[in-house]
Design a protein that fits this description.
By secondary structure, the protein is mainly β. The chain contains 1 helix and 42 strands. The chain has a 5-stranded antiparallel sheet with strand order 1-2-13-7-10, with no helix packed on it. It has a 5-stranded antiparallel sheet with strand order 3-6-11-8-9, with no helix packed on it. Strands 15-22-21-17-19 form a 5-stranded mixed sheet, with no helix packed on it. A hairpin with a 5-residue loop joins strand 38 and strand 39.
Length: 537
């Protein structure tokens, strides 16, 4: 097999918004100089490509060269299959070695890749074969001698915890020059998926220097979204020859919307001083997902015989091994319960997601039990769906902190269909409701009062105490310096007494607010009082 030379072309930043979907479905390369590059595809056959283990099959129309090979693992304990790529190296030297995986899900999540160079110790690493875009994944820089004595091998070992397909496609070998030469771990765009406010999510971008002299990365620059930043390391930073550095790119959404951006790696590489990599993510309301994979205490099967299913809801950003089901005809009255760990009191949107299915119950009973003594609610839902991830609403409910709230899925005998299914249950915060506690006192307060919050200034949270001298409607709200309401801490009828409530520096949507001066205003009957509070992050 001869060396192939590939000329990569820049795609300008101006074009990214127009072709974002295309970026996530095909391999996008940005190298502008000619490099000696060798590819070995699964279609090459022996002696360049060989397989061992359980019968392999070909997946058409998906892969680096239009297809790839895979093993369907009906039994997850069926392991030890291997695929090996053997390049014919014509020029000895240091090569950036990479493997290709198509856009895929349901693949093994922890497979072993081995790079063996003739006359040297083998190097190994484990990789997830599930990626949200087709991409070459670097395995490092390795010295490969002339000839066919080196190889890359992938092994389906016993370390995977998920995946019903073991995949093999292509490998790539880029000859490193004597001068510095930058090569990012991936050139395709990265999708963070859904990130709940006010959380953040990190992605590690590995930057290689496959050349023979030191490379300096001066800057990691971002576009105008304002939601992305470099967490570490400090810049500038030198990358030694034939080595790499990891750069942690953080996505912190500040609103419930989509964020499209571009990260640019700026270095002293003469041919590629600036490499653009598109980024994508979505800010959503804070949420908790209870997965049947996790088991107790979040998920418990109370009645019936339940079984594993390879089908699963394939929702971005949510790790999901599979789903569970019970056969309705043989297990009437089957019941499984989801119990979330709710972080704060508030109104929550409760939704569920199931695998794509047409044989499930068309009238599955869901009983929602909000904590704090609230009355249960019953909802009947058709579980059948033709979508890989469809969040379907059960309702909006006021939930209390902790594990006092639950959702049960029950076969009550009213639905037709072969099975009753469970998979994912999602609890999204709509608005936060602070917990107000009454302080025991020996006698009823004679006057109304709003005490100074403590501590003040504060960082994480501060306690606010107040007294009311007669029964009535009480309002306790927090405002910023522009007079905008930040959070309604109390808005209810209360009996005369002394009360306390904590403000955690968040707004009504559960989002952290900025450091600064805030005002807490009490209104009880004709009594108004305001105190100043200082939040320091």
């Amino acid at each position: 097999m001869s060396l192939a030379v590939k000329v990569y072309a820049h795609i300008t930043l101006l074009l990214w918004p127009l072709i974002w979907d295309l970026v996530f479905s095909i391999q996008v390369s940005a190298q502008i100089v000619q490099r000696e590059t060798l590819y070995v595809d699964d279609s090459a056959g022996e002696p360049y490509y060989a397989e061992t283990g359980t019968t392999w099959a070909t997946s058409q129309f998906i892969g680096w060269n239009g297809s790839h090979r895979y093993v369907a693992l009906d039994d997850p304990t069926n392991i030890n299959q291997t695929a090996r790529w053997t390049p014919e190296i014509t020029t000895a030297g240091y090569y950036a070695v990479a493997f290709y995986v198509p856009y895929t899900s349901y693949a093994r999540n922890h497979v072993l890749y081995i790079v063996s160079s003739l006359g040297s110790v083998s190097d190994s690493s484990w990789h997830d074969q599930n990626y949200n875009s087709s991409n070459f994944i670097n395995l490092g820089v390795h010295y490969l001698p002339q000839g066919s004595g080196s190889f890359v091998e992938v092994v389906n070992d016993s370390t995977s915890t998920f995946g019903y397909n073991f995949r093999a496609d292509a490998t790539r070998y880029i000859l490193g020059p004597d001068e510095r030469d930058i090569e990012p771990g991936r050139r395709n765009g990265y999708d963070y998926g859904e990130v709940p406010l006010p959380d953040s999510k990190d992605w590690v971008l590995r930057i290689y220097n496959i050349g023979g002299t030191a490379l300096t990365v001066y800057e990691i620059a971002f576009g105008s979204s304002g939601a992305h930043s470099l967490s570490e390391p400090n810049l500038p930073i030198d990358i030694e020859p034939r080595s790499y550095e990891d750069f942690t790119v953080r996505f912190r959404p500040f609103a419930e919307q989509n964020f499209d951006d571009t990260v640019r790696v700026i270095s002293n590489d003469a041919d590629e001083p600036s490499i653009p990599i598109p980024l994508k993510g979505k800010g959503v309301a804070p949420f908790i997902v209870v997965n049947d994979d996790n088991g107790p205490p979040g998920y418990v099967e109370e009645v019936g015989e339940w079984r594993d299913s390879a089908g699963r809801a394939d929702c971005p950003g949510i790790a999901n091994i599979g789903s569970r089901y019970t056969i309705q005809a043989t297990h009437p009255g089957a019941r499984a319960t989801f119990t979330p760990e709710i972080p704060m009191a508030g109104s929550y949107r409760i939704e569920f997601a199931l695998p794509r299915t047409s044989a499930a119950s068309d009238n599955a009973l869901h009983i929602i039990c909000p904590g704090g003594g609230a009355a249960p609610d019953s909802v009947w839902i058709n579980q059948n769906s033709d979508s890989d991830c469809e969040w379907r609403l059960l309702g909006i409910y006021d939930l209390v902190p902790g594990r006092e709230n639950s959702v049960s899925v029950i076969d009550d005998g009213t639905g037709s269909g072969y099975v009753l299914r469970t998979d994912l249950m999602k609890f999204s915060l709509c608005s936060a409701v602070p917990v107000v506690s009454e302080i025991p006192t020996k006698e009823v307060p004679q006057t109304c009062a709003l005490l100074q919050n403590y501590p003040n200034p504060f960082n994480a949270s501060s306690e606010i105490r107040y007294r009311i001298s007669e029964d009535g409607y009480v309002s306790l709200r927090v405002f910023n310096i522009w007079g905008q309401e930040v959070q309604n801490l109390v808005g209810a009828q209360q009996t005369a007494g002394e009360y306390k409530v904590k403000w955690d520096g968040r707004d009504d949507r559960g989002r952290e607010v900025a450091s600064g001066l805030y005002f807490c205003r009490l209104k009880a009957g004709d009594f108004p009082k305001t105190v100043k509070m200082v939040l320091v992050r």
